[in-house]
Fold these 2 entries.
Entry 1:
Amino acid sequence: MRSYTESGTEPAIIDPSFRPPAAKPVSAARRRFGIASFSVGSLAILLSDFLPSIAQWLLIPGSILIVLSLFLLGTSYLSRKDHDIRKLYGR
């Protein structure tokens, strides 16, 4: 039985030159703002656990800041509009 690493005479099913598009890097300012909003949101949620008198005022904004930071830091990996399935098969 021939190993898959050997090059055969049969054409490849998938185009070997295909590489998935690289994720666009997040800008430095966006990264700083995302990390800062995540930190402040996490701190607000932790404080709401220990201060029950102001928990309702800290929990919701802290949650919103964490969700905002996820959008700021993660959208570059989610947007792959230039990906074309036809490139897989070399057409």
Entry 2:
Amino acid sequence: MAVVCDVVFDDESSEQLDIDSLSMMGAQREITAYLIDRGYTPVGRWEARARTDGKAAEVSRKFKVASDRRTKVAARDTRVSA
């Protein structure tokens, strides 16, 4: 399994971040700490999007900065079921 993390900004621009964690839970902690260190504050909890095709799972969480600019982070594992 590989975890891919895309940071999507309000203007719809995005940035893919390198993740060292091998699990989704570890990746969530890693990206949360990364964004908090850069001045973002989590808004709500991680939310999962169910997939029925067995290809990938996706979770997301919103973050904001002091200027109230919102950012949504989406992490997905790229596990493929045979």
